[in-house]
Amino acid sequence: GNEALRGRGRVRRAAGSPGSGSFLGAGAARALLLGGRRRPRRRMLRLGAERGCGLLLRGLGAEQLGAQSRGLGLSLSRGTVVVERWWKVPLSKEGRPPRLHPRRHRVYRLVEDTKNQPKGELELILTQSVDNLGSRGDIVSVKKSLARNKLLLEGLAVYASPENKKMFEEEMKLRDEGKLERLQTQSGEKTVQFLRSCHLEVGMKNNVKWELNNEIVTRHFLKNLKVFVMPHAVKLPDEPITRWGEYWCEVTVNGMDTVRVPMSVVNFMRPKTKRYKYWLAQQAAQAALKG
């Protein structure tokens, strides 16, 4: 028993005193001395790793939530870019991958870029008359912004789908057959608006007897107002017009809209020739020199 106790004390002295002959290595002795500190270090490393991963995942979750909260207007516009190699890759043997040059075969040439291409137009069918576009049933091609922000939004047009085209074709057939009321064309509407703001002047000679008729009025429409009117579309007062004065005439556009145009019948004056205008200019120049 005493020998066993002496052996234990010898081991303790060897472990406790650095000067004694050590039965254990320096690392083992340091582990025995600092054995109580190793576990906290590992635990701190594990906690730090867990905390770092948690912060990383939390940041990713915040980014995803921020991306979801953003509207569609801030989303990236997508497009397709088609490229091709500037240098062709040589054919390889059967069963072997192609041999690519590290620099030459990485040079590409742009073929098509759908993102930066000019935006195409949208085809619509007008449901109402629109200025500078057309009337009901006309198929027009307009910019997508105009179509979506005005025409489609206000109900002035619909998409030119096969169903809508067929529906408007049937409607046009019914109008041509007289089963539906006819609609004024866009040029007809512009003509009506122009005639409402016009005043016609008809010049008649004073040395002969005359009576105003439809043919004379239509010639003056074309000469003075640059408007071509058929004689059967003009209506004059029931009383014959044989004197100068203020009168009126009615013009029917496309057999639908009738406009009353004020008309003045005046004495006809021959247009002055260039020679007469040149003589007047000379007289004015001489008078200015004398003055």
TrEMBL record:
The keyword Nuclease does not apply. GO terms for biological process: translation. GO terms for molecular function: structural constituent of ribosome. PANTHER family: 50S RIBOSOMAL PROTEIN L9. Residues 181-266 form the Large ribosomal subunit protein bL9m C-terminal domain. Belongs to the bacterial ribosomal protein bL9 family. Gene3D superfamilies: Ribosomal protein L9, N-terminal domain. GO terms for cellular component: mitochondrion; ribonucleoprotein complex; ribosome. Residues 123-168 form the Ribosomal protein L9 domain. Residues 81-113 form the Large ribosomal subunit protein bL9m N-terminal domain. The gene is MRPL9. Signal peptide: none annotated. InterPro entries: MRP-L9_N, Ribosomal_bL9, Ribosomal_bL9/RNase_H1_N, Ribosomal_bL9_N, Ribosomal_bL9_N_sf, Ribosomal_bL9m_C. The keyword Transit peptide applies. It comes from the Eukaryota. Keywords: Mitochondrion, Ribonucleoprotein, Ribosomal protein, Transit peptide. Residues 1-20 are annotated as: Disordered. It is found in: Mitochondrion. This is Large ribosomal subunit protein bL9m.
